[in-house]
Amino acid sequence: MKNIVIFGRFFKEEYTPQIQDIFTQLSNKGCRILLFQPFYNYLKNRVNLPKNIETFTDESELTSKHDLLISIGGDGTILESATLVKDKDIPILGINTGRLGFLSTTVVSEFKEVLDDIFNKNYSVDKRSTIELHTEENLFENTNFALNELVVHKKDTSSMIGIHVLIDGELLNTYWADGLIVSTPTGSTAYSLSCGGPMLFPKAQNFVITPVAPHNLNSRPIVIPDDREVTLKVEGRSKNFLVSLDSRMETMSADTTLTVRKGKFSIPLLKTKDQSFIGTIRQKLHWGLDHRN
């Protein structure tokens, strides 16, 4: 773990001393640091950066020779980090300076202990499955995948839209709703959860299809195997709709067909010895604090 990539955006000023400590600890370990250029510009007047630090601006500058990517921020920052890692198999460690943090679970004040665990090989790597989108228009070009979810949504605030969902070519349902989510197990604790979808363990080999504000109350979320092909066709009064992959969004026309499959690669998330999915959801959802639960 000598070649370290660091990605981030911004953080609250109260975290400055702890961010400084991250760079100090990495420097003390003799790590070679490659820092995202915009983040470098943000940091250079806030912390004392190592003199031999290098910067990068594009995912093409990352290779499999890099041992670890440290994502400083929240879950959204990890989703952006995934677009840099892609199929390079670089583990991502999330340092949480955000809010909830289902993915970015390492507390920034505990970085020294976590780094010691990493160098002592007291960690594991979770391979998180992805979802990929195919369209004739190639809407997302070479970032046509998501770690969390694909979402189809109406573009304006007028009427709901109809989303025809086919599984391996067979019609499942037409959802009349504000939108529809197709999530991975990782994404099951994100937007899908807020719309009433179930939580899946990260290694579950499934997709969750969850309608957003459905017109019919009997339109419920459904879990399907992730080796199935999901086809989405959208209709409504508008001629254009929105489709997103995690935080990236594009406008699609009414004649666009969306084909959704399991991604060809997974995103590795580094997990220290004291972290577990059960512990994370228990902590983040405050289970057990109320004795009635």
Structure at a glance:
The chain has helices spanning 16-28, 37-43, 75-85, 111-119, 191-194, 277-284, and strands at residues 3-8, 32-36, 54-56, 68-73, 92-96, 106-107, 123-134, 145-146, 149-154, 161-167, 170-177, 179-183, 206-212, 222-225, 230-235, 240-245, 248-253, 257-272. It is of the alpha/beta class.
Explain this structure:
- A hairpin with a 2-residue loop joins strand 16 and strand 17 (248-253).
- The longest helix has 13 residues, at 16-28.
- By secondary structure, the chain is of the alpha/beta class.
- It has two domains: 3-122 and 273-284, Rossmann fold, CATH 3.40.50.10330; 130-264, Tumour Suppressor Smad4 (Sandwich), CATH 2.60.200.30.
- The model has no long low-confidence stretch (mean pLDDT 92).
- It has six helices and 18 strands.
- 18% of the residues lie in helices and 38% in strands.
- The strands form three sheets. Strands 3-2-1-4-5-6 form a six-stranded parallel beta sheet. A six-stranded antiparallel beta sheet has the order 8-7-18-15-10-11.
- It has helices at residues 16-28, 37-43, 75-85, 111-119, 191-194, 277-284, and strands spanning 3-8, 32-36, 54-56, 68-73, 92-96, 106-107, 123-134, 145-146, 149-154, 161-167, 170-177, 179-183, 206-212, 222-225, 230-235, 240-245, 248-253, 257-272.
